[in-house]
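We emphasize that the prediction below concerns an isolated chain of 285 residues; any contacts that depend on oligomerization or on bound cofactors are therefore not represented. The input was used exactly as deposited, without trimming of termini.
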Amino acid sequence: MTAAFKAEMAQRDRLELNKLRKLLRREVGRAIADFNMIEDGDKVMCCLSGGKDSYAMLDILLNLKKHAPISFEVIAVNLDQKQPGFPEHVLPEYLSSLGVEYHVIERDTYSIVKDKIPEGKTTCGLCSRLRRGILYDFAVEHKCTKIALGHHRDDIMETLFLNMFYGGKMRAMPPKLKSDDGRNIVIRPLAYCREKDIERYAGLREFPIIPCNLCGSQENLQRQNIKMMLQDWDKRFPGRLENMFRAVQNVLPSHLCDTRLYDFDKLERYSMEPEEFNQISVLNL
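Result of the prediction step, given as a C-alpha cell string:
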C-alpha cells in the first residue's frame, strides 16, 4: 500500500466521520427537542457499558453540551459487574482522557446471574434488572435528574417485534419514561439514530469497545433473530425500517383493537333524515 493511497483513505475516513458526526448530532438534537429530554439545569447520568452505542451517546452529548442554548451537566457512570476477564482499566483511562466526571460502580452481579440462570438460558433479563436497580439507586444518591441510555432506533424496533411475536403486546422502548419506582426519568437520546450509522461512527472514532462476554455467546437469543430479520428487510426493501419507525409515531387507536385506548361502545351509526337521503340520491344520479 503506497503512501498516496494511505493518505487518500485517511481523507475519505475523515470526510465520512464528519458526515456521520453531523448526522448523529442532528438526530440526537431532534430527539432531545421532540421529547423534551434535557432541560436547563439537568444533571444527566450517561450510562456507559463499553459498547459502541453508549460511547457514541456520551461523545455526542458532550459535544452538544458545549453548543446547546441551555446549561446541563453530564457525568459518565459504568457498572463493573465483575465478569471474568473484564478489562477494568479501559474505561477509566478513556474517560480520564476526556476530562469528564465519571464513576465506576463495582457490584458482582455476574455471580448472581450465573447462579440463578441455568446454563444455556437467556441471562439478559435478570442481568438488566439487577443493573437497572443499581443504576437507579446511584442516580438518586447523586441527584441526577436524567438517566441516559444508549438504545437506538433499531433497538426500539426490535423490542416492538419481540413484544408482538413473543409477548402479545404492541409495545416498544419509549424515548423518555419515568422509572417504575417513580424516582427517575430515563431518556434515550439515540432514539432516532440507526445502528449501522453508530457502528460506523464508533469504528472511525476508534472507541475502546469492551464486549459483553456474559451473554454475547448466546446466539439463540430471540432478539438476535429479530435483529437478523430486520437487517434482511433493510437490505432487500430499502426504506421499510424508516416507514416502520414512522408508524410507531403515527398511531391511530380507532383503527386497532384495544378497547382501553378507544371507546368502541359509544360509536353510533349516523342516521339521516328522509330529505337528506333524497338529496344524496339525486346527486348520485
